[in-house]
Amino acid sequence: MMHEPAALDQMFRALSDRSRRGMVDRLGQGPASVSELAEPLSMALPTVMKHLAVLEKSGLVHSEKSGRVRTYRLQKDALAQMEHWLAAHKASWNKAFDRLDQFLADDQPE
Fold this sequence. Notes:
Layout: H1 5-14, H2 18-27, E1 32-33, H3 34-38, H4 45-58, E2 61-66, E3 69-74, H5 76-106
Antiparallel strand pairs: 1-3, 2-3
Helix pairs in contact: 1-4
């Protein structure tokens, strides 16, 4: 699976904010309207909308408007891209830590 670095940068940047991570967590339970996503947050609705715009621009969420209600849902493919990137890097990080552990174990005085 090929990852476009700029797209991953946008996704990770979008998730760098606690409020946006909370919205993603909520959307993990299923689609939600703007008002449902705003309910647990102590911020003005225009601020919530800005956060949702960041999430949508990053490709993590998608919205649909039906009448006056805008509903957001997770884009599972985007999350899968992030998960794949993390898994690929985790393997190399674990190898590096294993080598460091071995080096430190070998370096201990007897």
